[in-house]
């Protein structure tokens, strides 16, 4: 069976003016449109329409015995989100149980549920910018040299050079601790960033790095997250490119519109670039301070006429269909997002006429999906047991 899904648009300060409503083909809400959730989470507020009646999707899945332990999100960022990490499964279970036992009020909770939150982000806009994971020391040294060359105060450069040449875990702890020396460096960076310019790098990489510093410090003056971003990969995705964020990987989405898929969790441990509550202690407990030469990009694999995003450590995949064809769902349920065109979705038992902007849930009995007429369809499906 194929069932229509709806969900409210979530309005956060960092959201886009109208990216989600334009994608869904609806009128702009007039507020910052940040996220729309489709999936099995008690706070998702997803609605499924069955036989003309609307039901809470989370409750319907439970009552019907259907297992779809995923959250599928449309995410639209006009301003940077916080630098954050997500816990692994055991960490989430322990943290959730501990806060529940201690009676921590909702507004002070770090653990909103007992699930891990590995997530895949696929760019749907022409460009999607993010910070993901830590760079190796050679890249830190290159950036420090650039800052010094472009006129950052020598004493601030010396202090940063000394602290950022320590083992990465110590450098990160120093930065997020936000002590006097950190804030002195931030003050120097803000003074410098107001007037710095003139890249000497033929590739333009220095210009991009400097523009990022200027953007972050203008939005979050005095925030140690500005300096933490200095240690992270600066990721610039084109449409269709993707990045996978596993437990413990520090990240921040900066700007762009994308499709985000994750396990059904809202566990976010923030450490910077936000006015929301920070949890520095828990961040340092969870964060993976392993430097990587490259960020964790996920190249799609061609499967017939479609492209599939898979091969990362989570039991789900996303298939992008751009031509009429058949895709096996291995007898798993799926969320289908119709991006372009009008046509038909068909399984082994039923079919449904759809158009751009619709979000559909298909049950396991359909086994496979055949498309006709639609020009761009994103299919989120399980690839094995989860949880």
Description:
The chain is α+β, with helices and mostly antiparallel strands. It folds into three domains: about 10-130 and about 235-285, Jelly Rolls (Sandwich), CATH 2.60.120.10; about 140-230, no CATH class; about 300-380, Sandwich (Jelly Rolls). Helices cover about 25% and strands about 30% of the residues. The protein is built from ten helices and 21 strands. The chain has helices spanning about 20-25, 55-65, 90-100, 135-150, 155-165, 170-175, 180-195, 205-220, 225-230, 280-285, and strands spanning about 1-5, 10, 35-40, 45-50, 55, 70-75, 85, 120-125, 125-135, 230-240, 240-245, 250-260, 270, 300-305, 305-310, 315-320, 325-330, 335-345, 350-355, 360, 370-380. Strands 1, 4, 5, 14, 15, 16, 17, 18, 19, 20 and 21 form an eleven-stranded antiparallel sheet that branches. Strands 2, 3, 6, 8, 9, 10, 11 and 12 form an eight-stranded antiparallel sheet that branches. The chain has a two-stranded antiparallel ribbon with strand order 7-13. A hairpin with a 6-residue loop joins strand 15 (about 305-310) and strand 16 (about 315-320). Helix 4 packs antiparallel against helix 5 and helix 5 packs across helix 7. The mean pLDDT is about 95.
CATH top level assignment of the largest domain: Mainly Beta
Instruction: Please identify, by name, the CATH architecture of the largest domain.
Output: Sandwich
Low-confidence stretches: none
Form type:
globular
Task: Provide the number of structural domains.
Answer: 3
Coarse structural class: alpha+beta
State the helix count: 10
Mean pLDDT equals 93
Task: Estimate the helix proportion, in percent.
Answer: 25-40%
Could you give a short account of the major beta sheet? 11 strands, antiparallel
Q: Alpha-carbon distance between the termini? A: 25 Å
Instruction: Estimate the strand proportion.
Output: 25-35%
CATH homologous group name of the largest domain: Jelly Rolls
Tally of extended strands? Answer: 21
Please name the CATH topology of the largest domain: Jelly Rolls
Q: For the CA atoms, what is the radius of gyration?
A: 22 Å
């Amino acid at each position: 069976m194929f069932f229509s899904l709806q969900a409210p648009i979530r309005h956060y300060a960092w959201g886009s003016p109208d990216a989600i409503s334009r994608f869904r083909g609806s009128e702009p809400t007039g507020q910052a449109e940040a996220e729309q959730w489709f999936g099995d989470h008690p706070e998702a507020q997803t609605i499924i329409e069955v036989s003309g009646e609307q039901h809470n999707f989370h409750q319907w899945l439970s009552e019907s015995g259907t297992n779809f332990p995923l959250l599928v999100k449309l995410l639209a960022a006009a301003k940077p989100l916080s630098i954050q990490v997500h816990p692994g499964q055991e960490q989430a279970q322990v943290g959730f149980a501990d806060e529940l036992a201690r009676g921590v009020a909702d507004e002070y909770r770090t653990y909103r549920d007992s699930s891990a939150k590995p997530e895949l982000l696929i760019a749907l806009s022409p460009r999607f910018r993010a910070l993901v994971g830590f760079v190796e020391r050679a890249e830190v040294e290159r950036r420090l040299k650039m800052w010094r060359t472009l006129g950052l105060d020598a004493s601030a450069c010396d202090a940063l050079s000394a602290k950022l040449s320590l083992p990465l875990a110590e450098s990160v702890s120093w930065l997020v601790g936000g002590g006097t020396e950190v804030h002195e460096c931030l003050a120097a960076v803000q003074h410098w960033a107001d007037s710095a310019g003139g890249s000497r790098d033929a590739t333009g990489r220095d210009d991009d790095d400097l523009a990022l510093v200027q953007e972050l410090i203008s939005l979050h003056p005095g925030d140690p997250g500005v300096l933490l971003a200095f240690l992270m990969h600066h990721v610039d995705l084109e449409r269709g490119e993707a990045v996978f964020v596993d437990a413990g990987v520090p990240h921040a989405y900066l700007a762009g519109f994308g499709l985000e898929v994750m396990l059904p969790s809202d566990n976010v441990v923030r450490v910077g670039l936000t006015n929301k509550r920070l949890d520095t202690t828990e961040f340092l407990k969870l964060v993976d301070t392993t430097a990587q030469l490259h960020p964790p990009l996920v190249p799609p694999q061609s499967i017939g006429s479609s492209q599939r995003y898979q091969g990362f450590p989570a039991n789900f995949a996303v298939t992008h269909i751009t031509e009429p064809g058949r895709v096996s769902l291995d007898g798993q349920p799926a969320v289908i997002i119709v991006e372009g065109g009008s046509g038909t979705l068909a399984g082994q038992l039923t079919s449904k006429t759809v158009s751009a902007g619709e979000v559909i849930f298909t049950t396991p009995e359909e086994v496979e999906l055949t498309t006709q007429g639609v020009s761009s369809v994103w299919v989120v499906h399980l690839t094995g047991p989860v949880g």
